Amino acid sequence: MKKILTIFLTLAVMLTAAACGAKEEGTESSPAPSSAAEESSSEASLPEPGPVPTEVGGEGLALMEQMTAALEGTGDYADNPTASIETSEGTIRVRLFPKEAPKAVENFLTHAREGYYDGLTFHRVINDFMLQGGDPNGDGTGGESIWGGPFEDEFSPVLRNFRGALSMANSGANTNGSQFFIVQRKDALSGMGLSDYLLNLYMNDQVSAAQREISEMAAGGKSQEEVNARIDELNGELDGKYAAGVPQDYADQKLPALKKYEEVGGTPHLDDVHTVFGYVIEGMDVVDKIAALDTGETDQAGNPAGKTSKPVTIVKVTVEE
Fold first, then answer.
1. Residues 264 and 162: beta-carbon distance below 8 Å
2. What's the predicted TM-score (pTM) here?
3. Residue from 184, 150, 191, 192 nearest 306 by CA
4. Which of 10, 95, 109, 248 has CA 20 to 30 A from 211's CA?
5. b vs e for 55-84, b when ≥16 Cβ sit within 10 Å of the residue's Cβ?
6. Distances (CA, A) of 101 to 154, 194, 213
7. What does 127-138 look like in DSSP terms, one character per residue?
8. Is the dihedral of CA 39, 42, 44, 47 positive or negative?
């Protein structure tokens, strides 16, 4: 692919470039680059971007208030259950959300009561991203749910992967087991302004849809000539969407969370990919302390290895009843 597809494939990688992982990982994911990503973007040019809404109103304001209440444990969330995760580096307390993520919470609480997590490690720690644990194998390949098999994702518009979120690690849609991660990132928008981030997020979604269409055409036996012709059409469509700017209805969906991300940090690209079922209420200093133990090593592909300079153990998870 060429032109705008190439440029926005690069932007998609920029938005999600902290880590890639295998197995059951709380990872950041981006579309697999095709040969298009190898083409020089110097051959491409973009039109001037269109308007990008940045104000939240109406139902969006009400949603932001719910998000704030969930983070602060006020209103409807004041009496939610809590648990403490005692680690070798200190204790982290979390508030859980059984109404929004009933299976994830039941799974975590049952495992905690049965001592499943006791003695396990945070096997994958990436500074300025997250801490991942809950795997008896200690390498991201193991663990199971209390039901003996994977359970489905539970996404809520109120619970997002803000800094301090307790979320389920997975290896794809509806593959939740025992592993979880805590979001540690402080700069959710990767140094971008809100409008630039929203525009890139919107175009990333459009490019991903275009990629899927081209992949389906190729898998369906379409000729290279037909595929190339459709690529040219898609480039024109993407040019038009970029020039038109972000639609108001798209902005209305994304802005409430992005405004909160701008305020508190986190990993917005993991929303609706990983189930959020809790928030840290005490011990973010411990989370940061653990994250600082990341050695900074990378794997053969150049992705963060997630290794720590010393083992970090989950001593005990206690349900506060």
1. yes
2. 0.83
3. 184
4. 248
5. ebeeebeebbebbeebbeeeeebeebebbb
6. 5, 29, 32
7. TTTEEEE--TTS
8. positive
CB 290 within 8 A of CB 122: yes
Question: What gap in Å lies between CA 263 and CA 276, rounded to an integer?
Answer: 18
Interatomic CA distance for residues 21 and 253, integer angstroms:
28
pLDDT digits (tens, 9 = 90+) for 217-275: 999 999 999 999 999 999 999 999 999 999 999 999 899 999 999 999 999 999 999 99
Q: State the amino acid at position 145 in one-letter form.
A: S
Phi, psi of 99 (to 5 degrees): -70, -45
Compute the distance between CA of residue 271 and CA of residue 129 in angstroms, rounded to an integer: 14
Q: Which domains are seen in the chain, by residue range?
A: 4-49+194-250 (no CATH), 60-189+260-320 (2.40.100.10)
* Distance linking the first and last C-alpha atoms of the chain: 56
Q: H or E stretch including 200? A: helix 194-219
Strand pairing report for 276-282 and 165-168: antiparallel
Angle between helices 248-264 and 194-219 (to 10 degrees): 120
Other beta carbons within 10 Å of 114: 11
Average pLDDT of the residues of the chain: 88
Q: What is the pLDDT of residues 259-317, one digit of tens each?
A: 999 999 999 999 999 999 999 999 999 999 999 999 999 999 999 999 999 999 999 99
Residue 313: DSSP 8-state: B
Residues in the chain: 321
The sign one gets for the Cα dihedral 198, 196, 21, 285 is: negative
Six token digits for residue 301: 């592909």
Write out the DSSP string of 225-238: HHHHHHHHHHHHHH
